[in-house]
Amino acid sequence: MPLYHETPDDPMNQDSQWAERISEDVRMPLIKVGRVVDGNRSFEPAAEYPNNEIPEEPIYWSDIEGYLSRISEMEAGTSRIHVTGFGGDELFASMPSSSWSCLREHPLRLRDIRRQYSADYRIPPHQAILDLTDNTDLYEELRSSFLDAEQGHNHRSSPCGWHDVILIPEFLTTKARDILYSAIESQFKHADIRPLSPDRSRHQALYSLSMQARMLNQVNRTFASDDITFRSPYLDHGIADYALCAPISARTEGNLHKAVLYRALKGIVPETIFRRPVKGDHSYSLYLAWQRSKDSLLNSITGGELDEEGLIDMPAIRRRASMPMPDITFLFEMQRVAAVERWLRHANR
């Protein structure tokens, strides 16, 4: 059974060296399938979908689309099951609200948890205590955050809240904003908004796992005609249930990356793998993909479906895009623009 590996674009990333060591240790062949950026289709709204399989909704895994396509082609005539790592971080790595959860597990350690939280996020001790002891429910936090975003208030978002900061792209037109606000208000009025777990970290993990499972289902529908199935052990119900039963505080014990997974594999996987200083980070590759595709992206969406519908402000997008190094949030927004534009073009054919 071969192991597949994409070479990181960041010269500081040592994942390739680790992949080679692991391959030698488990005595399985390592097949390199190009650089990470080579398979990134994040900013290509004119691209055809693999196998001309039009999805039911926009896909948000275009950053690994090329990799999956190459795997599908390379495994022709071999094993038709390809194991992926979807969901691994959600089950075993720290969540944004880990400090909040750790305090509920160890209330007498407030001082130590507060000190670490203050250092991690560079916030004053008083604010750290307010964040860590906050008990606002999910509905109220979502509604408050959305209203602040709608009104353009620069409201501080707690690092250990239920969700990430809500940001509405500056380049959305008034028409787009009205549609967005109306849809969200309808959800607040009629939907039963409850957390997936009363613990914030587990809620975040479960929410992200559900999104990972949704993406993996999309991937399998897209490549079904190639007679290949992509799976992830981390999305197995039994494994997920057992992993989420572990205390949140156990995830960061001993300064180990994914400490719970290390203990489960102790004696099988070397400890050094869990202590490596630099792990996979694809933001470098995202910037490379942006620089490669920026001009064609801007030309493609100008006069495109979203522009014609009056939903995006192209001059505003071009102003942001003209920056030598746009912030990562803008790149994520443009990923979504490209994904929706691409899907609309195929859906309207």
Automatic annotation (TrEMBL):
Coiled coil: none annotated. Residues 54-320 form the Asparagine synthetase domain. GO terms for biological process: asparagine biosynthetic process. It holds the Pfam family Asn_synthase. This is Asparagine synthetase. It comes from the Bacteria. The lineage of its organism: Bacteria, Bacillati, Actinomycetota, Actinomycetes, Bifidobacteriales. It comes from Bifidobacterium hapali. InterPro entries: Asn_synthase, Rossmann-like_a/b/a_fold. GO terms for molecular function: asparagine synthase (glutamine-hydrolyzing) activity.
